[in-house]
Every structure is written in structure tokens, then in C-alpha cells.
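I would love for you to help me understand the pair of lines that follows before we discuss the fold together.
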Amino acid sequence: MKKTLAILLAALFVLSMAACGSKTAETPAPTAAPAAPAATEAPAAAPAEQKAEGYTSSQGTVDGFDPNSQTDFEHNTSEEVRSFDIGTVDPALFETPILVTSFGQSADASMMEVMMKKAGVKEYVFNAQADGDMVKNFKTVIIVCGASSKGLGAAGVSEKDETARAERFMDAVKASKPAIIMCHLGGSIRRGVLSDTFTDMVIDMANYMVVVEDANFDGKFSNAATEKNIPLTFLYAIADGVKVFSALFGK
């Protein structure tokens, strides 16, 4: 009898341990499951937040200007016609030495320096932040107009600082009277309130304009050339300026 009771007690003990073991094995599953969605969802939101916080417009404008929606106009240049002239340029006006600078600190100014090198121009100085006190040392000044918020940030200057420098520079131009070439090389994406402010400063005293034609979607440059009698060369692309400056300074 005692032996039978002992066997029954042992059997009950084994069954109870099995039941406990079954419950213990099942408990990790509910705790592990919720962690998986959290791990997969977090990275999805991060890139969008980083883009919103870190994005900087290359136009350098704050007016919401969208030139790309307004560029459907009749061009004079094309893949076959790489440049187009309005008026006649007098090369004798443009003597060396030459100063190349930027109004707006866009990368277009650096592209201008590349063009000068490829065109074989020897006597020039490139200084994107040249101030007015340099003007008196040069007979020709090339001003590349086009604002870039990234460029201004990299140069460590604000829109206000850049505008003030441009105004001082043009005051020096009035005093020294070098020949002025206004370049707008960034096309339609380099148009906007700040860029146009710089352009307007220079056009009034320009002896020649060189413009990537896509920027002329509203007739700004062609109208200025006609009304102010300023020779203008439209370029199909920036690289087409090499031939223009080679002919101008290759004397």
C-alpha cells in the first residue's frame, strides 16, 4: 500500500513539473515578439527627418521661386548652335590683367575659373570674395552672378554680408572704371530674388554679358541687352564659354 501511494505521489510530481516546464517554455515568446517591429520601424523615419533638417537649397533664395516650371521658351542656342550673339563685342575694351570674382558665392564662379584656364587666359586673378580695394589693380573685371546658400555657408558669409561686399565692390568699379563682364552661368536654377539683386547691380555698368540662355526664360537678359545696348552672348552650356573667352582674350 505504501509502495503504491509513493508511486502515485511520484507520478503527480512528474505531471506537475511537466506542466510548469510547458508554461516556462512558452513565456519568452510574448516578450521577444514586440521588440522586432520597433527595430524595423525606427530607421524608416530617420532619413526623412534628416533630409528635412539638413537640406539646403542651391539657389540661395528664400522666395520659393521655381524657375524650372517657367523655362518653356524659344531658345536661340541648341546642340547645333552653341552660342548666339546680340550686338557686337569690341575686344579692344577688355585688357589684362583681369579679376574674376563672385557675387553670391555659387559654384558657377569656380566654373568660370576653369573656363579661363581652358581658354588659355594668362593674366587673371580669381578671388571669389574680392573686395573693392582690389578693383583699382585690374583693367577688366569679370563678375559671376548667382546666389547659393551652400556657397555662402561654405564661405562663412551671410546674405547681408555678401550684398554689402557687392555694393562696396560696385562703388569701387564706379571710381576705377574697369571694363566689366557680367556672367550668369547657372541657368534658370540660379534665378531668384537674391541672384537677381546681384545681377541688377552689375548690368547697369556692364560692357558685355555672357549668359547660359536657360536663365533668360523671362527675357531679362535679352531685354537688358537691347534697352541698354550691351553686347550679349548666350551659351547653350557653361562649357561653350571656353571658345568665347579664348577669342576675347586670345590676342
User: Anything to note?
Assistant: The first strand starts at residue 83 and ends at 86. The radius of gyration is 34 Å.
